[in-house]
Design goal:
Order of helices and strands of chain B: HHHH
Number of helices of chain A: 10
Strand content of chain B: under 5%
Bound molecules: zinc ion
Number of helices of chain B: 4
Oligomer: heterodimer
Largest sheet of chain A: none
Helix content of chain A: over 70%
Structural class of chain B: mainly alpha
Number of strands of chain A: 0
Largest interface: A-B, 47 and 37 residues
Number of domains of chain B: 1
Shape of chain A: elongated
CATH architecture of the largest domain in chain A: Orthogonal Bundle
Amino acid sequence: MDDVALLDALKQRDSSVLAALFTRHADALYRLAVRLLGDEQQADGVVQTAFLALLDHADRFEGRANIGTWLYRVAYNECLMRLRAAPSVSLDDLAGESGEFMPSCLVDWRNLPEEALLNEEAHAEMERAINSLTPTLRAVFTLRDVEELSVSETAHILNLSEAAVKTNLHRARLHLRERLSRYFEGRHT
Amino acid sequence: MQCDDLVRYLSDYLDHNLEESLAAEAQAHLASCHNCRVVLDTTQQTILLYRERGKQLAMPAARHAHLFAQLAKALKAEDEISE
Ligand SMILES: [Zn+2]
């Protein structure tokens, strides 16, 4: 079923269609929200808000709008509202980083054995690294490189220009590469 | 192409967004510059690690079911209001 047919069925209050949409999109929205908010309970609330908005909005949906992208937009805006409400986050943090960044750690850790790359300690370092990025960089990296959305979809969801998506993605990648390289440097033989 | 340029174009190179002549220059630089090759390879590896880890994250089944039940209830409630 394509999105137009799904929306028609949802207007008829067909709960099997709601189930199909929830199965298809809930986890992706949840991952973005966990990534941005760092809190699973809050992420549940974000997913709920996005789907309630969809139920509310089904009658007025633009014919060609993409449901997945639309849900992502609502979820992302909900995340931003919750971030702004958190006292530890300043609006500067939401604006993204600027400036050139040159790689400095040049150790080649690509061929480390799997157990070095995939163990829990490495995972914890990956978490610390991505959480050190601004929310904008985190969101761009998550949508582009983890969820593999296109530049234009990512731009639409995050309300950024395509150029800004590319710049932010580049910064995020270089920062994460640097952090992981420094971490793995100590484990390289 | 210099190392600075390669780093600047790195993401566009990875995403196949460079025009042909620049992509060829980047390729030539990468063939002769070990440092840039390492930066490219470790950037790719970084992306793959996050992608593999990231996609494993899903809402736990019990909360998934609970949340869906709430939404189905909301759907039904709206139905009753509109009738
Ligand atoms: Zn170089």
